[in-house]
Amino acid sequence: MAELTTLARPYAKAAFKFALENSQLDQWSAGLGIAAQTAADEKAAELLSAPQLTSDQKAGLIIDVCGEQINDGLKNFLMVLSANHRLALLPEISVLFDKYKADQEQSIDVDITSAFDLANDEQQKLAEALSQKFNREIHVSTGTDKALIGGVVIRSGDMVIDGSVAGRLEKLAEAINS
């Protein structure tokens, strides 16, 4: 995984820089997301790895599937990726691009999982507290997991805040057993 990120990073940075300079961050984010989904599809991946297809044909496959949902700049980007045999990196490039975009916009996506459905005011309070903690705009998505027993688990990227009863019980069990 780290190797893919290392390979994808220069392409993601170049795409981000171009999109930022042309005020097209949202269009590029959406277009890269669609292209990444296409490249990650099992049948598409098989075609993209076919040695009998030229790099132009491989890029053309993704461009044709995405159609009007991608702009000319992104089409050129896909052609460059294909010429360098890097179309398989599209999912990782899309993830990195979205991270750069979130940093630029000073926003962060947060997943909140709770044992029970959270009321709107509870979600709002959590979002406000997280916004102050991270000094960023927070985009919240919620879910439920009865196995948590109570409390919440907050995830954002590789950061996890486990405030669940199940998590506390697990920590207590570890402390007792050690």
UniProtKB/TrEMBL annotation:
Pfam families: OSCP
Keyword Cell membrane: yes
Top-level taxon in the UniProt lineage: Bacteria
Compartments it resides in: Cell membrane; Membrane
Membrane disposition: Peripheral membrane protein
Segments crossing the lipid bilayer: none
Regions annotated as coiled coil: none
Keyword tags: ATP synthesis, Cell membrane, CF(1), Hydrogen ion transport, Ion transport, Membrane, Transport
PANTHER family, alphabetized: ATP SYNTHASE DELTA CHAIN
Protein family (similarity comment): Belongs to the ATPase delta chain family.
Protein's job: This protein is part of the stalk that links CF(0) to CF(1). It either transmits conformational changes from CF(0) to CF(1) or is implicated in proton conduction. F(1)F(0) ATP synthase produces ATP from ADP in the presence of a proton or sodium gradient. F-type ATPases consist of two structural domains, F(1) containing the extramembraneous catalytic core and F(0) containing the membrane proton channel, linked together by a central stalk and a peripheral stalk. During catalysis, ATP synthesis in the catalytic domain of F(1) is coupled via a rotary mechanism of the central stalk subunits to proton translocation.
Protein name (Swiss-Prot/TrEMBL): ATP synthase subunit delta
Species in which this protein is naturally found: Litoribacillus peritrichatus
Gene: atpH
